[in-house]
What does this fold into?
Amino acid sequence: MVSRRAALSVLLVVGACGDDGGSAPIDGAVVDTIVPIDFDNGSCGDQLRFTGEYLDWDSHMNFCGINAAVVQVAGGGAMDSTAPNGRFDLCIPDAAMTTLEVTQPTANSQCTVPAAGYTIPTIIIANKQVIQTGAMITASAWTTTRQTSFFTDVVGVAFDPTKAQVYVNSPGGQRTLSLAANHGPAQALVVGTASTDWAAADMGNVVFFPNVDVGNGTTTLSATGGATTGTGSIPLVAGTITNVTVVPQ
It folds into this structure.
């Protein structure tokens, strides 16, 4: 498997979309198809192999893996430390959904300007059906410095530590995404265009929902525009990024 933000050679995408993801809002119908590849369970036996990448928030502009973060099954289960390119690979329980907690690296990032550290609590959702498509699982987090500038310059509202933050990766195709919980203005990326950037929209290869009401600790993630694997109930934690990957079918 290769990086979603570098190339999607493991996926065959056929379709058309509206705008190309520049600074204007993204619109238009999308028709796309992902041809699944064989799922490699490695040496995980009766467990699931969970492999993916953990990247800096601005890797769509300049690739930057988050090195030396620890990705661990919530509650003290299996763990793996990320490589310099952000890759992780571990065996997790054979369950419909598993939550993994990220312990951020203690050192500053070596590829952000200015150099800064990651302090935002982060969780990654491992959905069995998504894993078995063979799609690249991508999670992301911002540095403490970038948190301030992103919310000021892009979202247009202040970061609220009493609310959750939800990052949804949709490799190989765009979907219009929504959350049942109330949230701030959604921001979207269309990856792979000449002018890839965030725009106020809810359809893209990545959609970010800021300042999500935590409520009872879960919300429902939905998608329109075609069949999509990985939607449904997701956890919410105050002051924490929930990373979800969905796969257009």
Remarks:
- Residues 1-37 have pLDDT under 50 and may be disordered.
